From TrEMBL:
Residues 867-999 form the Guanylate kinase-like domain. Its main location: cytoplasm. This is Caspase recruitment domain-containing protein 14. GO terms for biological process: apoptotic process; positive regulation of macromolecule metabolic process; regulation of apoptotic process. It comes from Homo sapiens (Human).
Amino acid sequence: MGELCRRDSALTALDEETLWEMMESHRHRIVRCICPSRLTPYLRQAKVLCQLDEEEVLHSPRLTNSAMRAGHLLDLLKTRGKNGAIAFLESLKFHNPDVYTLVTGLQPDVDFSNFSGLMETSKLTECLAGAIGSLQEELNQEKGQKEVLLRRCQQLQEHLGLAETRAEGLHQLEADHSRMKREVSAHFHEVLRLKDEMLSLSLHYSNALQEKELAASRCRSLQEELYLLKQELQRANMVSSCELELQEQSLRTASDQESGDEELNRLKEENEKLRSLTFSLAEKDILEQSLDEARGSRQELVERIHSLRERAVAAERQREQYWEEKEQTLLQFQKSKMACQLYREKVNALQAQVCELQKERDQAYSARDSAQREISQSLVEKDSLRRQVFELTDQVCELRTQLRQLQAEPPGVLKQEARTREPCPREKQRLVRMHAICPRDDSDCSLVSSTESQLLSDLSATSSRELVDSFRSSSPAPPSQQSLYKRVAEDFGEEPWSFSSCLEIPEGDPGALPGAKAGDPHLDYELLDTADLPQLESSLQPVSPGRLDVSESGVLMRRRPARRILSQVTMLAFQGDALLEQISVIGGNLTGIFIHRVTPGSAADQMALRPGTQIVMVDYEASEPLFKAVLEDTTLEEAVGLLRRVDGFCCLSVKVNTDGYKRLLQDLEAKVATSGDSFYIRVNLAMEGRAKGELQVHCNEVLHVTDTMFQGCGCWHAHRVNSYTMKDTAAHGTIPNYSRAQQQLIALIQDMTQQCTVTRKPSSGGPQKLVRIVSMDKAKASPLRLSFDRGQLDPSRMEGEAWILSSTGSSTCFWAESCLTLVPYTLVRPHRPARPRPVLLVPRAVGKILSEKLCLLQGFKKCLAEYLSQEEYEAWSQRGDIIQEGEVSGGRCWVTRHAVESLMEKNTHALLDVQLDSVCTLHRMDIFPIVIHVSVNEKMAKKLKKGLQRLGTSEEQLLEAARQEEGDLDRAPCLYSSLAPDGWSDLDGLLSCVRQAIADEQKKVVWTEQSPR
């Protein structure tokens, strides 16, 4: 458009058709941006509108919104011809300078001596025109101050909410403490009851032993009786055998009766002897009966003995069981006692934090009171300025009266008075903006009547009548003060979707936006170059839902064609209701987020979104707070979470990346990868991995996460990493995602404090470390999210993870969508230093003893502090080359970067004597020290007694310093090697262990944490 370069004075020389063609080409932008109630007073004074026209434009029931009223105003002005176009452009110069520049291509410089001739020019007109500009500037300043105060108030409310949350947590801890006290007392009474039961059981056991002894004595007596009965039975058997022999002899003698009487007599005598020896048959029956009874009583005694033995065994088993229960009860009592002590210490610490929170709350209250005082003071100042404005209005009315009187006098009298009158001072008083009152439906009449009632007490009848005439007459006059008040009130009464928050693309101006291409009728939407994207974002805001051109189906209609250019970013604005139902995405932080499926017939499909398109950024204004997220290096889990929040009108920045999409599909089909995610984490808690497929993880292990949406939501897929080659090992499985891992960490800490499953002996070196308590600094990040530095990790080209994006578009950490600050996973990056790394030994006292021995060996040397003058110190400190102040009497001695690097260049390990806080400083210098932790206990301290005496340190001081420094190890931004006390027996053995640990750590990959920005 060649007409855009013409002068302002040349606009009046253009014909009517050219002027209206210029405005019609930008009609869409004009009707969306202007406010008709602002322009009608000026147009009425310029004699291109009458009162009826103004009433129809502002209050017609057919015109339901501002855009319709503005369109009707343009139609009315078009019937006025060239004068209507020129008057409309001049009104834009005052009230909408950006629209004036868009239409004419000229800067809205107000030349008070070069009006169009439709209005009478005077010094008063120039003064009021300048006042309008100054009032607009002051209005913008006041709006900016209001936004700053609102943000400050919101921050104070957030701090107050956090303080109240922590106070509720403290009350809960006090309730838990009282509950634990009640449980301890109940356990104590239970122990007393068990002691009484054990005493009664011991009495029963002694009685059973006595009964057992009586049964044994009775058994012995029965055995003696049985022995006697056996002897009697043997004698009876002998007698029966003798009788049988006698019968046989009698039979033999019967045949030999002739042997003689002597033999018979002899036999008779022997028979008598035998009869005297034998018992009678009755006696024999009695003996047999007594023998049976003895046998029966013996069997009963045997059975009773067996039952008593069983009861004795059961009593012994029950006694052992009760003893074990007693030991367990005592152990539970000791654990409960230790837990109470831990809770007491924790409550004391929490009480101290509560005191600090109360101080912070008092400071916040004082800051709020000071802000309120400042606001009240500003209101008082505004009241005084308002009074000054009324006074100036009076002066304006008086000057207008005098001007009309002078105009009514003859020209000769005017010249004579001009000679005699003193010149009016050209300095004008600065006008300030008043608080406007929103007008009612009858805004003009009510505003005029209210203004008249306010001014009647100060103005004369003539001046007030002339003031009202200036509102209602058709004679050209500048906008009055009441008109300005009305415009300010309408500014505050506008709907929230104002034109400043709309993204508008001019239809008729192909060069208005960077990256726009004209003359191509085959394109469907407008493309922006990547280099021009920041400029566009700084000047234009996303389109509001209330100002869109929507078709009958509710889908955004494309307004003009654009050119598809590969690898350039395209901004698409459309109705994204349930966006994840319209599209599905794949990818990750390594490859980017790609559209994988588009629902046919959806709004995304009508906007020509296709599989293979990479989503660069999403902008969604309907949520509170508003958010704009960059998805180029977010994980798949985070991208799905962000896109799930979109449920309404949104803007997507996309680009075509067919090669990356094809590579990702090939990897997924070949099962080389399951997603496009790839990053490394350091685990801060131990996880058992009980379920099938879960990975068992130890605290301080480094894992390579390859999928954040593995088998759905809630778990990640990770590989254990080789410490020397940084390659993924065969051990892989699932781990909880960040939020679930955070809950496990909290539960593990609660179990450790309540049940005391692990005793607090950090220097024992025996049990496996379960947790590493790391918290985020909320002063460096918002309460919702945190962020990490972006960078590239070789060999997998892993870009830094911008995990969660806040409402302002800044990257924040993928863990923290809660007020909790415990960190279960820490993002790490690898390093492979080629030169020998410095060595830092913990505790420092042990490090000093070992440094004296190590510096005698080849390849080790102490890093000495350097003396620096004040000028050198300031210069080196400004460059960031100071590590820490050295412990040398006299001061001005510092451990510097130059000293450490000079030893590293000599292929020597530098032995550092610095604190653990200096590790972060060394990492910023790309120096990665080897941290060796020597576990300390009382037995080990005695072995180092001689070395401690040379340093002037006692064993108690060593143990205390070791406890403090071991607590700082959890906050170290790198891994460390720990030496157990049972691995060496003397100082030489410890020295050998340290050398082996240094050699092993030099071969490993260095993993450092990424700090939040």
